[in-house]
Design goal:
The protein has helices at 10-28, 42-58, 107-118, 162-165, and strands at 2-8, 34-39, 64-67, 95-103, 124-132, 144-148, 155-160, 169-174. The protein has a single domain (11-72, 83-151), classed as Rossmann fold (3-Layer(aba) Sandwich), CATH 3.40.50. Helix content is 30%, strand content 30%. The model has no long low-confidence stretch (mean pLDDT 94). Helix 1 (10-28) packs across helix 2 (42-58).
């Protein structure tokens, strides 16, 4: 895999996540009945950061959970998967913001929707992504986007986060 270029550095990621947090508050008219659920693995880290920012801005606790979509994917079949989902609150009648790192075909987002709906009936489900690279196969569109990044199908977009990778950045690679 050949590195092509860094699309977002740490500062750009911070600005994008802050902007997403402000857009979420504006759209929902505050943080009342709001919760954030991040998709494992990097979406969970980004989701936690957004939940912390929302809590700081609104001076209230915004519930946060992490979602393992593996059992709901239509492209991977695993028989002995131990689900890591940790959503320690009820989602019934909440405005749920699902956070993922990159949206591509929309299949992961569809799996996240299925996983959330299985846990209850939220008032609304919204989708926030750091990077939208296009090439949808399903009619799914994020409500909040950190960066639109037109890509070729053979390119790979990788999000790195300090918590697991030691650095914050978004890089695009040629997938050779």
């Amino acid at each position: 895999m050949e590195k092509k270029r860094v699309i977002m550095d740490e500062k750009a990621m911070q600005r994008a996540l802050a902007r997403i947090a402000y857009e979420i508050l504006e759209h929902n008219k505050g943080a009342e009945n709001l919760c954030v659920v991040g998709v494992f693995s990097r979406g969970a880290v980004l989701g936690r950061r957004i939940a912390v920012k929302l809590s700081e801005l609104e001076k209230i606790d915004v519930p946060y959970g992490a979602l393992d979509i593996t059992p709901y994917r239509d492209d991977i079949k695993v028989s002995d998967h131990v689900e890591k989902t940790d959503i320690p609150f009820e989602i019934k009648d909440k405005n749920v913001v699902i956070v993922d790192d990159v949206i591509f075909t929309g299949r992961s987002s569809r799996a996240a929707l299925d996983a959330i709906i299985k846990r209850g009936r939220p008032r609304s489900i919204q989708l926030a992504v750091l990077v939208d690279r296009g090439h949808r196969e399903l009619p799914i569109r994020p409500d909040y986007i950190g960066k639109n990044l037109p890509t070729a199908r053979n390119e790979l977009v990788k999000v790195a986060v300090k918590e697991s990778d030691g650095t914050d950045c978004v890089t695009i690679y040629n997938n050779i």
